[in-house]
Amino acid sequence: MGATYHVSSGVTYMQPGTDYGQTYIAFDSSPENVKKMTKAVFSEIKKLKKELPTDLEVQNLIEKSLKQREIYLESNSYWINAIQFCYKLEIDPRDILQRNERIKSVTPEIIQNMIIEHYPLYRNTVISLFPEKRYRNKESK
Predict the structure, then answer these.
(1) How far apart are alpha carbons 55 and 110 in whole angstroms?
(2) What's the pTM?
(3) How far apart are CA 37 and CA 73, in angstroms?
(4) 11-20 long-range CB contacts below 8 Å, 24 or more apart?
(5) Could you report the per-residue pLDDT of 49-76, keeping only the tens digit for each?
(6) Going by fewer Cβ within 10 Å, which terminus of the chain is more open, N or C?
(7) What is the rounded CA–CA span in Å between residue 12 and residue 91?
(8) What angle do CA 97, 100, 105 make, to 5 degrees?
(9) pLDDT beyond 60 at 135
(10) 26 close to 4: Cβ distance less than 8 angstroms
């Protein structure tokens, strides 16, 4: 759509040992595009629940994820967060070293199942942040 520079999505787990977590999709846009972009996000979720993503879309996702992970591996904060995540969820920290293989194993079916499981359309919250409007006072001219 060309209405944003950046889109991100992810999952946050709130408590160790439970299935409770939050999924999110975030984007930036000009205020006049917020409704259009939000509608497009929900439309894509609905579409992915019915139709598999194409092999090309999945391959692009894998390539971008691997490139981003390569950058993250240079960051201390990545390692701290990854180790904390493993500790909280009682996952073997050596799992961090296997993530490239897991990324490469993603299939259209895995993505569709994840969308179906983690993005229920009946439970969502839309939060929009807008810049403060500043009106000039006539006396200040």
Answers:
(1) 12
(2) 0.74
(3) 32
(4) 11/118, 13/85, 13/88, 13/89, 16/88, 16/89, 16/90, 17/89, 17/90
(5) 999 999 999 999 999 999 999 999 999 9
(6) C
(7) 15
(8) 130
(9) no
(10) no
